[in-house]
Amino acid sequence: MTTRHLRTFYALILAQVVSLIGSRISGLAMSIWVYQETGDATPLALVQFFGFLPSVIAAGAAGVMADRYDRRYVMALADAGQAVGTVFLFISFASGDFQLWHLYAVTLLQAVFRMFQSPAFLASVTMLVPDEHRDRANAVQQLSGPFTGIVAPAIAGIIYSLVQVTGAILIDLATFFVAVAIVLSIHIPRPAQTAEGKAARGSVWREVWGGVLYLWGRRPLFALILHMALLNLLISGVSVLMTPYILARTGSEATLGIILAVMNGGAVVGSLVMGVWGKKPRSRVRVSLLGIIVMGLFFAGLGISQVAVFMALTLFFVMFSLPFISASFRSMLQLKVAPDIQGRVFAVTTQLATLLMPVSFLLVGPLADSVFEPAVGQAGWQAVAPLVGSSAGSGMGLMMVIGGTMAVLLTLVIYTVPAIRNLETVLPDYQPVAVPVGD
What we know:
This protein is mainly alpha-helical. It is built from 20 helices and no strands. It starts with a helix and ends in a 13-residue tail after the last helix.
């Protein structure tokens, strides 16, 4: 692997950053508009539901495409398809006929194309970055999300005040075209075919099933992925309440932007720490599990926080732990799985890990709006009032305390299983023995 390959990797990161900035600007503008217009958390939860539904249903098929075809074309297609959805959303707003179901439909369409992005990108990292640098590379990739999370809220606030939602949507559309141009200008090496890849060849669904069987044949890894599915149910699902929770606690859109910027700053610092550290840990799995425990503790602390400074502080450390969780796990998979089947394995992993999130998104909004928030100040609430308070947002805060606490307890349980704790010893590394294409 050469310096040229590393330049290609950073070009991919640049494309991702440009695209994410636009998406986050329009997404935050839409979130503020929807919550101000409806006053409910349920519409935001439904947006998240439709955003995750395609990957839960068909992410494996997207992974097969990433293994079969040039991965840069797969990523370019993903960006182009999302741009089409953005055009539809702009027309809806510009015409004055916008309805909530338009947002749900566009979110669903964009999610169909977006699910092709991640497996193609993650499998490309293996071809561009050697293993001793992958923790750093994956940490840098993790940096793109929070970096845009710092930049986008500030820009979104200015844009929203000047040109409202339509201006934010147009910026999002422009960034998609820039990202496509960057991706199409680079070259990503194709992996050599391996015995595992050859054995899995067949129809799309046969190859998807091959990815499932690959994970099922490695039971400790499969169990760890199911554990992540539970964590996504408990933490990622409840995180959809972030915007209404902060607005309910603070009553200020400006404060919301500052807190979100601090939150993403935590992930930036975490990614930088991991990148500067750069040393391959003895056990990436243990680093990941420890990161989950830290995240769960501070997520529960977020629910207890009742003033802006403490919300910002707890969210900073929630996100600080994220690179240690995700980057470590991704680096481990990139080392263990043959490169020519990584697309489908990463996709099936995502599919399984997010399996319960649509259920969570369907439940979280109604639970917040109809159960937990109405319970604030009612008979029996005195038992939890010293913990989460009795003001607006306290019900959502209690949901965060429950989710974070259960995540910590489940992770402590899973850590006691030797086969999972010592997964990297149990699961052999991929050995690069290529199979001739003509065989």
